[in-house]
Amino acid sequence: MQPHQLNPLIEPQFDAVTDYILNHLGSNVPLVEKMGHYIVESGGKRLRPLLVLLSANACGYTGEKHIPLAAVIEFIHTATLLHDDVVDNSDLRRGKSTANAKWGNAPSVLVGDFLYSRAFQILVEIGRMEIMQVISHATTVIAEGEVLQLLNQRNPDTSEESYMQVILGKTAMLFEAATEAGAILANTSPDARQAMQAYGRHLGIAFQLIDDVMDYLSSAEEMGKNVGDDLAEGKATLPLIYAMRQGDETQRQLIRQAIRKGGLEDLSPILTIVQETGAIDYAHSKAQEQVDLAIAALEHLPDTSFRDTLRSLAQMAVARKA
Question: What residues pair up with 97 in beta bridges, in sequence order?
Answer without folding.
Answer: 92
